[in-house]
Amino acid sequence: MSSADTSQAGGDRRKRSDARRNAQTLLDAAAAVFARAGVDAPVRDIAAEAGVGMGTVYRHFPTRPDLVVAVFRHQVDALAATPTGASGEDAETPYDVLRSWVARFTDFLVTKHGLAEALHSDQAGFESLHAEFVDRLVPVLGQLLQASVDAGQIRADVRPLDLMIAIGNLCIGAGTFPGYRARHMVDVLLAGLAHGAPASTDGDEPRARTGS
Amino acid sequence: MSSADTSQAGGDRRKRSDARRNAQTLLDAAAAVFARAGVDAPVRDIAAEAGVGMGTVYRHFPTRPDLVVAVFRHQVDALAATPTGASGEDAETPYDVLRSWVARFTDFLVTKHGLAEALHSDQAGFESLHAEFVDRLVPVLGQLLQASVDAGQIRADVRPLDLMIAIGNLCIGAGTFPGYRARHMVDVLLAGLAHGAPASTDGDEPRARTGS
DNA sequence: CGAATATACGGAGCATCGCTCCGCTTGGCA
DNA sequence: TGCCAAGCGGAGCGATGCTCCGTATATTCG
To answer: Has keyword Ribonucleoprotein (chains A, B) (predicted)?
Structure first.
């Protein structure tokens, strides 16, 4: 599912050698172009960088987002592969683990110029890119969240999807707006996560605490 | 400044009558189309809705964002015109005032389909749209923030621009992603604002509190 | 009231996208 | 070596933001 079964660069042994090579070349070229011009870079540029034609790009990656997904697959995998205890430290509290995972996620989004932006643009079927992130990362975030809730360290009224999208959103413009510090605002959000539950802020119930 | 001196619909008495009328027609048509198809709607559609040609649109509003700015000008004005005490209630604490202003800002962004998204897309000179919002609203937010800081109700390490962009970002996808509740996450962010300062969360200093 | 002229209009057209289509090239195999 | 399917390249399509300029008309002046 999620549209990115796109032959994964050099994995497929049944393809012709030039096809396999081109897929990898394309991946490298895309990574280079994305780093240089952001993930919004025209597909034509990527084709040119790789020294192939438009057709070749689209044969390997049927749609632009598929290419983006493929380029960042490794890093999403890394993020998805840390259910608990990033570095094996079991002494950390669940909330600490949550914090460090979120920090890594934030770094990832902030580092890749325009990735966070692309995650949300409704244009050109970028929803598959979004779906990829949601499918892979929401479960992990769900575990981290639940553990912190169970430990009584955070409020229980924030769902994994809410938090994931919120973090992704906060990272938008990180490299674009000079004065905006995305990481800092993610920190503030996490602080709010930790304190909303025990005492509701100011004695003033937020509003519309819909659903669980 | 900010590129939106664009004749303001019907204000200019020196223009030809048909020009004045068309400007207003365009504004109405744009509002209708934005409501129906989001602020990303093609300029051609707006021209068609208004029953005028492309040239007319661009003569009145030199660039797409200028049109968007003009359409939402009234509401931005309303937001900008409330330095303190939304409804004259002086008994509220500064933090309450901040909260209610932010709630109105959030409602505004969430209501207009795609406005929050458009605020951040780097494409097609949308930075003028962003500039408009920043110029008008950051000062107000600055006052609200400072008052709350002075009252000791919120942490002092969040600047107006940070908060404004953060809120705008959190509203992205409000109407697009079914499960995402933007308002709720804005609440969480505000909760973090209130609690980060006094006691740093868990005894564990967040991380990299880069330059106060 | 009727002509003159600046002002405004309309929409064809340009450049840039994402993506498709199809004739040509080339790798892999007998 | 020769065959043919897998693969390739890039012209081309439709959409979009924005420009340009010949045409229509509101306004003014005799």
So the answer is: no
